[in-house]
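Quick question, first post here. What does this chain look like in 3D?
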Amino acid sequence: MSPIVEDWGRIRYREAWDRQKEIFNALIDDRGAEVPSVPERVALVEHDPVYTLGFHGNADNLLASEERLRRLGAECIRIERGGDITYHGPGQLVVYPMLNIVRRGLGVKKYIELLESAVIELLQTYGIESSSNGDAIGVWLDWGKPTARKICAIGVKVSHGITMHGLALNVTTDLKAFSEINPCGFTDKGVTSIARELGSASESLFDEVKSRFVEILLRKLQ
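> Answer (accepted):
Ran it through. Tokens below.
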């Protein structure tokens, strides 16, 4: 069965986090039911500027001071996902799948690979060649070269076979925001976006990417 897709629009991070936890906990409570009564969901989000740090992340990878963050209208929040530090902001497609991966026959590694493959397939529709790799979760361009740059960060939480958090794909994101951190803990690799790789961005690009990605993800979850 396909999960329900919900577009939460532009939303503050903490509000989306609270919504996720409510659905996540309900799915955990429902996981033993013969006939599930709580539907799985995939939430599509665009956040106000925020930096998030995974529970094992290194706080030293935040380069900006608290005063600098205030001037930027942002904050840094430590959360319960894997991964290090990343940025969320306007022009970035954030996807939060809240799924029962046990019922779907997936382990954590296979689930993350499924998310990566969905992004890679999406990027191919724009003529952008990308890949995952065994050393750093997410989707990259030119991995293994001096020009390596990350286009999609992935950080998930899985408990009792239920997922939350997810992926952040740079579509028309202002990439200057990443200069305030060592993205995902890397000091020697860049970041990029679909708009940068295409050399331009139409007004409809964000919505078009969102639509294409949902179609690909739902197909892979069947």
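The beta strands are 4-11, 41-47, 50-53, 76-78, 85-88, 92-98, 139-141, 149-159, 162-170, 190-191.
The two ends are 7 Å apart (CA to CA).
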